[in-house]
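subagent[fold] <- orchestrator: predict structure for attached chain, return tokens only, no commentary.
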Amino acid sequence: MIMNIIQRRQLNFSAYSTVGFVRSNNEDNLYCDGTYMNIAQDKFSLENNAETPCIFAVCDGMGGEAQGEIASLTAVRTLHEHAEEIKSGKIDEAVQSFISDANERLCKIMREAKVRTGTTLALVVISGNLVHAYNIGDSRIHKLQNGKFSCISEDHTIAAQKIKLGLLTPEQAMHDKSRHVLTRCLGVFDEEMILTPYISPEFRANQDCRLLLCSDGITDMMPDEKIKNIMLTCKNSSSAVHELVKSALQNGGRDNITCIIIDFKIG
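subagent[fold] -> orchestrator:
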């Protein structure tokens, strides 16, 4: 008899979300292996360990009034319902099933309330040492491993398309009005597009690996080099998260700010 042996390991993570200085409500939400925010939380923080397999996500809702926070909350609640299937099944297929379900629920909300809403999604599933990353929209996933910093998500914006076409440089795109115009998000009707996430190539994390999931309240408020320096110099996930949020607020805090740091080395 052949037995499937699931490799388990302990991770350390820290998460923080705040409304910022300009927005009247927090339309972001997050998912930390079973924990997510209530709908009216202007501020949220969490530090803990997790055992693999585990799931983390950041969602940035949109739609004005309370619609954005309803969208992001719907996404994380739906993720919670699909979590066991994602952890135990074929991960890509299970994630796509969750995305389809969340999208259908948002479409139902929009039809019944006659409003337009949606949310981004940055999602990682960690199984043993393997990291599976998915995203829809412009919430990002960064990796720091062996001193090398990279973005492993792909922005779904008009500005990102212009970069691919050679119409803008990455530096120009940071100031282009189209940088927040999404080409993909949770909350689209069937006739508009087939909703598929960007799937980053899976990779094996070593003991030096640190992951960052964040909304654009982080990435709009500081350059990648600043994010990299914080991730490199902060000794633990808690100090890294708080330094990222502090820097985003010092640079204006013009949007909701949400981030999760996951460390593969405890201590």
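orchestrator: received. Logging for downstream: The two ends are 38 Å apart (CA to CA). The longest strand covers residues 10-18.
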